[in-house]
Amino acid sequence: MDLKEKLISSFWAFENHLDEDSYLHSIRTNAIKNFQEQGFPSKKEESWKYTSLNSLLKNDFSVFPKQENAIEYNDVKKYFIHDIDSYKIVFIDGKYSSHLSQTTHDGMDICLMSSALSKPKYRILIENYFNKIAKQESLTSLNTAFSSEGAYIHIPKNKMVAKPIQIIHFSTGNESAIMLQPRNLIVVDENSHVQIIERHQSLNDNPVLTNSVSELFINKRAIVDYYKIQNDNQNASLIDNTYIKQKQESICSVHTFSFGGKLTRNNLNFSQQGERINSTLKGITIIGDKQHVDHNTLVHHMEPNCESHQDYKGVFGENSTGVFNGKIIVDKIAQKTNAFQSNKNILVSDKATINTKPQLEIFADDVKCSHGCTIGQLDESAMFYLRSRGIPQKEAKALLMYAFSNNVLNSVKIPEIKQRITKIIANKLGVNIGFDL
Amino acid sequence: MLKINNLHASVEDKSILKGINLEINPGEVHAIMGPNGSGKSTLASVIAGKEDYEVTKGTILFEGEDIEELAAEDRAHKGIFLSFQYPVEIPGVSVTNFIKTAINESRKAKGLEDMPAKDMLKLIREKAELLEMDRKFLSRSLNEGFSGGEKKRNEIFQMAMLEPKLAILDETDSGLDIDALRIVANGVNKLKSKDNAVLVITHYQRLLDYIVPDFVHVLHNGKIVKSGTKELAHELEAKGYDWIKEEVNA
């Protein structure tokens, strides 16, 4: 039985155990039918041309982990941004860990998807927001069919959330191979401000495939800063599907830092449904070995006077491959749009590959749109300059790679995240230098 | 300190240095002059260890050790410093971070701990003052958007921080106005001691009014064709290089 069949038959077993009303039941059954019809994406599809899931899907993934696993905080502390005070929503093998989490219902809800889906008091929000902007494509549908757990965050209006929220998914490797389907719903009401950090971390070498879906609704004048730290181990793969709907004058930034993992695909979708919206999409990718990172972005400008800024930097070593596919759609009504996109890459090995493709579909006539992509190599004269000052080759390379990408960190608002990212980069490049900005 | 013997070097099979002999002792200032294309900058790069150049014959001894096989960073650790004619712009690396990394990597190579942050800061301030550099300058990206004078001052600032045994100044005077020239030369002179040496590479005599050489060598077509004292530099300034070429060809 291949993975697709296994998932479909597991779904019916799972769904029959749920004591749920027809509303969610019909969403889930429609979703599994969608997945059944479409199947896993293949390279024949334009947006999957450079990313193949084939070898990954040969693993015999468990869909429902059998036992719950405890983890001690001290063993996993390093995966948290632990030097700041924060809310924490933590999952182990897809199950909520109250032990590692710090949630709240005090004037806002920073808690669990499972409660939100089952408790009547959340019903209106679920009916208004759950599965409303997630695309009906196959992987998102698969997640919807199995969605039972993840982070549920609702910030009511006029609320400045003082502490960032960390969402962390651990997998323990108790199963020989595991597939996880985390589902996050984040609703931020008018004038509120929240910062979120998301991470997926496998704690041993067994294969993990995470198919994550997050829906973010950002209402008028709200501000959301979202940080994705992707530094998982070499047998963990991640398909991240993030759907963001912004209302007028809201500001949202998503920073994606990709250093680890075997295969990472980031589907990041912005839909601007109001005037004077600002969306920022930034990323640093530094990979080597046989790693693969694919950034697939979509910014849909649907109203006038909005902005979007995209800046993705990539450094590819050894046999790694990168993909950047950035699409900007400007509707006819969306006059005075400012849309910028930049994707710059360095190949540090002859065997590394990057495929970069900007796609602009502009139907309005009074807009400013620009895009640029470059692929280059480390500057040899800069290397000699650094080495002639006594900085050894490896350190000089690392310094140049860091220098190439560090402008992306300028817009990170939490200093501890900047420090963590620079540390991860130094580790990744095998050097022990400060990298101070 | 530096002993170059019958040095031949080429780049992409093009022979540029064709038998250089040069000996520099501690406490000495040497100047190498010569027309464009004579091989001056190549000589500087070969001593500093630029990999584009291939040494085809001869030896370079530094403190008695053949350094031909050593990487640029290892030569730097031994005390060789090259002030670049065209310092490279590196956006994203601040002057301070760059020099900190350079100092600590050199210390690491010598088995020393990183310099304590406080001492580093003090040293940076002291040396920046010597070169009359603005504090703001230190947090800017390395050479990015620097004027010609700022770039050269930054080179000598790095030299002051690294305290090399042998400093090679490659066309340090080019692009400098008279004030910047004075500051840079003054910096070099203050760093001079009986234990270190300076090799000044220049097209014009101007810099040598400020950094006075003990010996002047004329490089022509990949060879040192004439050596003398500082008076030779004046003669070149007055008469140009043609008479040297004629003398060689005669």
Structural write-up:
The complex is a heterodimer of chains A (437) and B (250). Chain A has 437 residues and is an alpha/beta fold. Chain A has one domain (3-398). Chain A contains 9 helices and 20 strands. Chain A has helices at residues 3-17, 22-38, 73-76, 113-118, 123-129, 138-146, 380-388, 393-405, 415-428; strands at residues 87-92, 95-96, 109-112, 151-155, 165-171, 178-180, 183-188, 193-202, 208-218, 223-230, 236-246, 251-258, 263-272, 278-287, 292-301, 307-316, 321-330, 338-347, 353-362, 368-376. The longest helix of chain A has 17 residues, at 22-38. The N and C termini of chain A lie far apart (53 Å). Chain B is an alpha/beta fold. Chain B has a single domain (2-249), classed as P-loop containing nucleotide triphosphate hydrolases (Rossmann fold, 3-Layer(aba) Sandwich). Chain B contains 8 helices and 12 strands. In chain B, the strands form 3 sheets. A 6-stranded mixed sheet of chain B has the order 6-9-10-3-11-12, sandwiched between helices. In chain B, strand 1 (2-11) and strand 2 form a beta hairpin. In chain B, helix 3 packs parallel to helix 5 (148-162) and helix 5 (148-162) runs parallel beside helix 6 (178-191). Chain B is globular, with a radius of gyration of 18 Å. Chain A binds chain B through residues 379-382, 384-393, 395-396, 399-400, 402-407, 433-437, and chain B through 48-52, 71-73, 75-77, 81-82, 84, 87-88, 90-94, 96-106, 109, 158, 162.
